[in-house]
Structures are given as C-alpha cells and as structure tokens.
UPF0342 protein QNI29_04405 (Pontibacillus chungwhensis), 238 residues
Amino acid sequence: MANIYDHAYELETALRNSEEFTQLQEAYNAVMSDEAAKQMFDNFRNTQIELQQKQMQGQEISEEEVEQARKVVETVQQHPQISKLMEQEQRLNQVINDVSRIITKPLEDLYGAGEGEQQ
Amino acid sequence: MANIYDHAYELETALRNSEEFTQLQEAYNAVMSDEAAKQMFDNFRNTQIELQQKQMQGQEISEEEVEQARKVVETVQQHPQISKLMEQEQRLNQVINDVSRIITKPLEDLYGAGEGEQQ
Ligand SMILES: [Ca+2]
Ligand SMILES: [Ca+2]
C-alpha cells in the first residue's frame, strides 16, 4: 500500500519537474500576467465550458453560438502567447493520458479478459 | 520524459502487485467462474450502465425502472461473492482516485493559483 503511494509521489515529482510541465507553467504565467491575453483566454475557456455543458445537457446550440465560438477560437489561435499555452496544454494532456493508460493497464487486463477464456 | 514513463511503469507494477489488486482479481475470478453469479453480476452492471446513460442523456427514468434497479442491487448485495467483488472494486477505486489526485496535483496547483495572487 505504502509502496503504491511512494511510487505515485515519485511520479508526481517527475511530472512537476518535467519539461512538459515547466513549459506549460511558463506559458500559463505569460498569459496570466498580460491582462488583455488573460481576458481573451478566460473568454475562450468560458465559451468552451458553456457549449460543453449545453451539449451534455442535450440543449440545442444555435447557429449564432457556433459562429461566436468559432470567432473566439480564431482569435485565440492568432494570439501567440495563448496559442503557445494551448499547445503546451495539449502536450501535457498527452503525457497525462499516456500515464493514465499505463497505470490502469492491470484493470484493463482484468476486465478486458472477462469474456471468453478464463485465466 | 523517459523519467515520467519509467515512474509510471513502476507505479503500474506496484498497483498490479498490490494486495488491493490481487484481491480484486481473486474476487473477480470467483464471480466469473460461477455461471449464476456471472449472470447476476452482468445483469447488475447492464442495469447500472443503462440508467447512467439515460441520466446523462436527460431521459426520464420510470418508477418501474428505479424499482427494478433497487431489486437488482438488493440481490447482488446478498450474494457473498458479488458483494465481495464490489467491495474490492471500491477499495481499488479509492486507491486509483488517490493516485490520480496525487499525480494531477501540479496541474491543480498551477490552475488553482490562476485567480488572485500571481506567482
Ligand atoms: Ca475470463
Ligand atoms: Ca496567479
């Protein structure tokens, strides 16, 4: 038991010290310390969350909303610091997804073998 | 980068060799090797998944369905091998949630500090 948590904390430290995380940190701080960039980024995030929530709740999304969201995405993509931040987020997400797949492999092996041949 | 994955694989091995996982494996195999228990468990899981999907899609769940689900839960809880399996699943889920919270702490620290004081 302690063993699992020891390894989890070691992994946490490795993630925290990784190039992926430190570069995300830099990109995030660059955006947050620029008031205009921060507002643009917050606006982008809020728009995304709003649309996702509507989608999950099965609410209809109007053409105007789709168009508005498209414009917000276009704007942030043209902002060097924000697009850098989004790129770093994607890189770290990839690492987190990989890690998550690795550590849940035992469960996948167990439940994936559920049908057919008994182990 | 390699460092992160090395630690992830070490964590995976620790999880796979943990008492929590090996006991889950035993409980799962005990249910799967008993045809009646397996059918009861599959029925329980399918009922759960069906209701969750309806809920997520905002569909109404009838009184009959709630009552039916309640009966299925009652039945599996009274089955020693299945209730043992569910208990072991909860134990491992707790460990996985703890691990997940530990390794995403850097992101929580970064984004949680987003408002208010700059770092
Ligand atoms: Ca099997
Ligand atoms: Ca801050």
User: Anything to note?
Assistant: The mean pLDDT of chain A is 91. Chain A has six helices and no strands. Chain A has one domain: 2-112.
